[in-house]
Prior knowledge:
Blueprint: H1 4-7, H2 10-16, H3 26-40, E1 45-48, H4 56-60, E2 66-70, H5 73-80, E3 90-92, E4 104-109, H6 120-133, E5 134-145, E6 158-164, E7 167-174, E8 179-187, E9 197-205, H7 209-218, E10 221-227, E11 241-248
Parallel strand pairs: 1-2, 1-4, 2-3, 4-5
Antiparallel strand pairs: 5-11, 6-7, 7-8, 8-9, 10-11
Amino acid sequence: MIDQQQIWDDxxxxxxxxxxxxxxxxxxxxPAVDALNELAAGGPxxxxxxGTGRVAIPLSETGIAVSGIELSHAMLARLREKVDEDRxxxxxxxxxxxxxxxxxxLAYLVFNTISNLLTQDEQVECFANAARHLRPGGCFxxxxxxxxxxxxxxxxxxxxEVSEPGYVLVDAVDPxxxxxxxxxxRFAPDIEGGREARVFRSPHRxxxxxxxxxxxxxxxxxxxSRWADWKxxxxxxxxxxxxSVYRLEEG
Length: 251
């Protein structure tokens, strides 16, 4: 059994934040916060796998009362270096089962995090847990990548997803189990003869959009909208990610 505490440890927590760059850049974070603020419509929100507060902190700054659930001790400790419990209360536990309260207007899971649940049963349970937190008519929002199995050559067990100076991402894929392990290689600044790199591995269970929709229906949600990104560009057959908005049925 994989120990998520060992994956999301102190090293991961301390290197997670990249202020102003990557997923912390204004161009990425701004549209996400704007969309979530609109969907919350002034009501309280709960973030599953809140992490170090990348989204929760700026969302709370818009006036939305934000709570969270987080499994990792290290990620939660990093969050607490930024904001205290009074501002953003967090329940420590598994996002598929931990309970942070009821009557939320919005629950959300960003940056592929539902894939950290490594079985279909756990992912189904996560939808049920979201429904348990929401008021009737509330929204559950998931940001997730689209599996790129078309890029996997026959007979090959992995793909290079990113290759740029100082960083390479290689995904090893098991199509039978819908498992994917990301290998993040980060290299020190180029020095003649240097060979050292740091590797961070994270396991995932990838989910097709149609499978995600069925999980939602089992928990009493209906798909309200699906975008290719937080800027609400149209989702197409060529999209590599999606933001899916599910509405909890009333009654």
